Amino acid sequence: MFETPTRSAVPEQALQAIQQLIRDGGYQAGDALPSQRDLAERLGVSRASLREALSSLSALGVVSVHPGKGVFVQAAKPAPSAESPWFAWPFAAQIGAADTFQLRYVLEGFAAGQAANALTADDLDALELNVEAMRVELRAGNFEAAAQLDFAFHRRLLEAGGNLAMLHIVTSSEAIFVESQKLPFIRPERAMETWQEHRKILRALARHSPAAAQKAMQEHIRNAAARCGIVFAA
């Protein structure tokens, strides 16, 4: 049966609890969920946490929120996976989202390690400005702009690493890579994790530590994939 989280529940717990409510309550597409006030009380969460959870579920296509009318089930979906994710991937005919993240894991992890010893003080200053600009855009909910900054951050490391073949692969498929960087923002309550992970990468780069930079980059890409429901072995 449905389990009620504690009062300290975060939006992630609320999201999972609503999914469980839909499953256990036998809700079908088009059915209305309880009012937001009732949901917040039933889940034991604040209205702010509930709104964040509903925003994520709306982005995932699980519910639709109609102000003044209510929250309606769009589809009762299984847990996300690489084979059956909770998002629309516009490049499915060319390359899967999971394959894209795996490619990035290999290419960009290596590039970060190479860049660690090659970045100049000016490069590091530019990356610092990029990371700060991303923080501002994420705080404002400007995810398109944040994704472009994300791509610019990764591209600068590829340029510094000096491997022209890898740089060509990424820049010639820029739309695909930008989409993979935008995808984790379907979980807006976790969007700032991208910024935090970029900060960790930048700290490793500033220490000129190839091993730490490669590890931080690969952790970032695996975490970003996981925020989309994509999990893969290293």
UniProtKB/TrEMBL annotation:
Residues 8-76 form the HTH gntR-type domain. One of its GO terms (molecular function) is DNA-binding transcription factor activity. Pfam families: FCD, GntR. SMART domains: FCD (SM00895), HTH_GNTR (SM00345). InterPro entries: GntR_C, TF_FadR/GntR_C, Tscrpt_reg_HTH_GntR, WH-like_DNA-bd_sf, WH_DNA-bd_sf. PANTHER family: TRANSCRIPTIONAL REGULATOR, GNTR FAMILY, UXU OPERON TRANSCRIPTIONAL REGULATOR. This is HTH gntR-type domain-containing protein. It comes from Pseudomonas putida.
